[in-house]
Write a structure and sequence with these properties.
The structure holds 2 protein chains of 2 kinds.
Chain A lengths: L1 H8 L2 H9 L2 H28 L8 H4 L3 H26 L3 H7 L1 H22 L2 H6 L9 H23 L8
Helix pairs in contact in A: 2-5, 3-5, 3-9, 7-9
Chain B lengths: L1 H8 L2 H8 L6 H26 L15 H21 L1 H5 L2 H24 L13 H23 L4 H37 L1
Helix pairs in contact in B: 3-4, 3-7, 6-7
Classes of the chains: A mainly alpha, B mainly alpha.
Amino acid sequence: MEAFLRYWMRWPSVEGLIYKYLWVWGVCQSLHFVGMVLLIGTVGILDLRMLGMARQFPPAALKKLIPWGVFGFVLCLATGLFFVTGIYANINVHPYVVLKSDVFLQIKFVFIVLAGLNLLAFYATGMSRAVDRLAAGEDAPPLAKFFAGASLFFWIAVMYFARLIPSGKFQP
Amino acid sequence: MQDFLESIENSGFSSYIRETPSVLGYSTVLALHTFGMAFLVGLSGVIALRVLGVVPELPLKPLKGLMPMIIIGFWLNAITGLILTSLAARSLLANWDFYVKLVAIAVAIVSLQKMRGYAFRDTSAPDDAPASAEARRWAKAMLFFWGLAVLGGRLTAYATYIRIQSAEAVAVAVILLLLLARYLVRRAHRSHVEARI
């Protein structure tokens, strides 16, 4: 397994791009932030509405923003993959070593998975349809509020632990 | 001036935040700066998307209810930004990119205020009414300057020649994105008009 991950996590083509064009890393970091802003701006607004803020919104209208949130997530995923596969060119440490030993990166991934599971549960329990039926001014069901609070908490945790990644210890 | 900045950098507070091995020091201040940015830029960006007609189905007036969260995001950023500046005051204040970021933030905030003023001025307008041309103009300015502030903030950590190369690359990307955004706005507007007919 280790040999498999060591082989697939390091991409010489991505490293070559980073060595050749020094601006690529910084621009990708900025795009990662833009993706995060889109994700929090759109998913966060729906979560806040379910939690009782800006109740004048019919939640179904807010769902029109979800494609922008998905776009933000894809942007974060693509640039995140770029960082992982090209990190050797930036800090001279194999990405497998970073993944294995940086506890903050591991916690970040756990929270991303939890945010995904929370979203699945939101749809699977029928809360998504219940929220769609809400008119302006109506209160969301308690279970929907729970999913909204959990979603905000998970995404904030993802951002927090992402910021801690550089302070993680690498043990080759 | 250098002595003054040095004394700020070497103050007990700045030294603690910069040097403490605890994750509650520098990393947490940086994380709070990111939260502030996500709420300030993210939520004001949603208002701009509606004003520009990208999401015409979204009722305009209730968006005003997001302003408290946007203001909280701004103050979180302002306070953590001051703390982060105090940690490396001499190098940051000698960095032209840092001033680009500050000016971009100032213009984005003015644009947000102007956009808000124009977009929510007519309280009797129906929720699905398109925003005024002035509101759209300020929304475009705000999005542009938020983008510049985010980019400028990231690039303060890099050498000057990397910043210049990045600026050139981003200029090309922005032109392409603007063309794409123009197409998406027109398409969304067209489908909304057809749906109303």
